[in-house]
Design a protein that fits this description.
Elements: H1 2-7, E1 10-17, H2 29-42, E2 49-55, H3 65-75, E3 79-84, H4 87-90, H5 94-106, E4 110-113, E5 118-119, H6 123-156, E6 168-171, E7 174-177, H7 179-193, H8 199-208, H9 221-229, E8 237-239, E9 242-243, E10 250-251, E11 258-260, H10 270-281, H11 287-291, E12 300-302, E13 309-316, E14 319-326, H12 327-331, E15 340-341, H13 342-358, H14 362-399, H15 405-428, H16 433-453, H17 456-466, E16 467-474, E17 477-482
Parallel strand pairs: 1-2, 1-3, 3-4, 12-16
Antiparallel strand pairs: 4-5, 6-7, 8-11, 9-10, 13-14, 14-15, 16-17
Helix pairs in contact: 8-9, 13-16, 14-15, 16-17
Coiled coil: 370-453
Active site: 18
Domain Resolvase/invertase-type recombinase catalytic: 10-158
């Protein structure tokens, strides 16, 4: 019985009057309290009532002492009903009112306004609430439209309305270089692309050197990844990328983004930034494979089944040696590939690189041409798709009156140029074999030099920036596949 009494929730009577309403008839604090009490008696409610009074406070916002106290009581589960004489007693702003009603419903609290016969526990009250919700949704959409227009205009004029990213400072709503931070940005991209370090290794190095982040916090994996994927560093403004309407933020579709190129100060050139995105989006190598003492850990594949070659040790207690073994054979028994001594496989790999460097075969040329043609076709298709999406957004902006016809026509010309270039390149399909061979030889030379000069972990990190995978076909026979040149 005691527990039941403790669980009984009170009825909250909320009364408010501002200074300029004191003399008006029918809305004095005393009048409001008497009408609310009389309503409770008429309904036969004998539950304890608690009166919350805000004397001399406007309804322009919800920052009122007693209203905040009432909200805390609702959140603590102490209230069953909230009553007011009129809706405008609790708020004159529809959005504030609906937010409060949402809070009440979340905690199973009904809301009653006796003048409007509004009770969220009744069908008519819920219908009224739905109508109010539709009006509020319309108002929210209008607010979003205005924000969208302001952000779009700000972007086209080079204005930056949020916090400045690392590498920049904000001066009169414009991004300007922070020279010291900009050098750190360049270094992070260099560590990632040239040295082959991962997010964790970069964050660890920056923290060990005492280099602070933007707001003096330690660097994290997330912070490094966000830097490497932020298009601001190549001079591109991107807005409307995230959907924040739900608790968990998600990416919107590409054609909903507002993307304006070449409107911000550039720290990283476009080619380097795009190279970083290719590595970010590539299949990641397991952390254990990165830190193992095996040079080809993480990139060596079985020539019989295509599975990864796992790394380990074999031999007797006094004669242990490193080995590569097909993981499908080791874990499932589904492959008949044998294990190979790691030192021998790594020697075959180095010999293969030397042969590639010294000799250029017709097969190498054919493979290179096929890879580059496929890469060029994919890039051209993506460029056309992006151009059409940008033009579509400009049409929508023109329809909404945000840009002039001249701007729309200019975007159309750009789109047609990209489409024509893609078609012309597809017709030509000309590949400079000599240039490609030189690039390949440069890659191989860099690898051979790194194998001689660097430690195994550093050499592996560098290796993985250039080589996609190595396929172990049989004794002394390997295939080496490079990342796109």
């Amino acid at each position: 019985m005691a527990d039941e009494l403790n669980n009984i929730r009170m009825i909250a009577l909320y009364c408010r009057v501002s200074t300029d309403e004191q003399a008006r008839e029918g809305i004095s604090l005393h009048e409001q309290q008497e009408r609310l009490k009389a309503y409770c008696r008429a309904m036969g409610w004998h539950t304890e009532v608690t009166i919350y009074v805000d004397d001399g406070y406007s309804a322009k916002n919800i920052e009122r002492p007693k209203l905040n106290e009432l909200i805390r009581a609702v959140k603590n589960g102490e209230v069953s009903q909230v009553m007011v004489t009129k809706l405008d007693r609790i708020s004159r702003k529809l959005l504030d009112l609906l937010n409060l009603i949402d809070l009440f419903q979340e905690h199973n609290v009904s809301f009653i306004s006796i003048s409007e016969s509004f009770d969220t526990n009744t069908p008519s009250g819920r219908l009224t609430l739905q109508v109010l919700g539709a009006v509020a949704e319309f108002e929210r959409e209008r607010i979003r439209e205005r924000v969208f227009e302001n952000m779009y205009h700000a972007a086209t004029t080079g204005k930056w309305l949020t916090q400045s990213p690392y590498g920049y400072n904000l001066v009169d709503k414009e991004l300007v270089f922070d020279e010291k931070e900009a050098e750190v940005v360049k270094r992070v991209f260099n560590l990632y692309l040239e040295k082959g370090l991962g997010y964790y290794a970069i964050a660890k190095q920056l923290n060990e050197e005492g280099i602070p982040s933007k707001y003096k916090k330690d660097w994290s994996i997330r912070a490094v990844k966000l830097m490497l994927t932020n298009p601001v560093y190549k001079g591109t403004f991107v807005w409307n990328r995230k959907d924040s309407s739900k608790k968990k933020r998600t990416d919107k579709k590409n054609d909903e983004w507002i993307v304006i190129d070449d409107c911000l100060p550039v720290i990283i050139d476009k080619e380097e930034w795009e190279d970083a995105q290719k590595r970010v989006n590539a299949k990641q190598i397991a952390p254990r494979a990165k830190t193992s003492p095996h040079l080809l850990g993480g990139i060596l594949k079985c020539g019989k089944c295509g599975a990864s070659m796992s790394i380990g040790w074999s031999g007797s207690k006094n004669n242990r040696y490193r080995v590569y073994r097909c993981s499908a054979n080791k874990n499932k028994g589904t492959c008949t590939s044998k294990q190979y001594r790691a030192n021998e496989v790594e020697d075959w790999f180095k010999q293969g690189l030397v042969q590639l460097f010294e000799f250029s075969t017709n097969q190498t040329k054919t493979t290179l041409v096929e890879q580059v043609l496929q890469s060029q076709k994919k890039d051209a298709e993506q460029a056309v798709q992006n151009a059409k999406a940008r033009y579509k957004r400009k049409v929508e902006a023109y329809t909404a009156g945000l840009i002039e016809l001249e701007d729309l026509n200019e975007e159309k010309v750009k789109m047609e140029k990209i489409i024509n270039n893609a078609k012309r390149d597809d017709d030509k399909k000309e590949i400079n074999i000599e240039r490609l061979e030189k690039q390949l030889q440069k890659h191989i030379q860099n690898i051979l030099q790194s194998l001689d000069a660097l430690s195994i972990p550093d050499a592996k990190a560098f290796l993985q920036t250039i080589i996609e995978k190595v396929i172990l076909i049989s004794e002394g026979e390997l295939e080496i596949e490079f990342h796109r040149i």
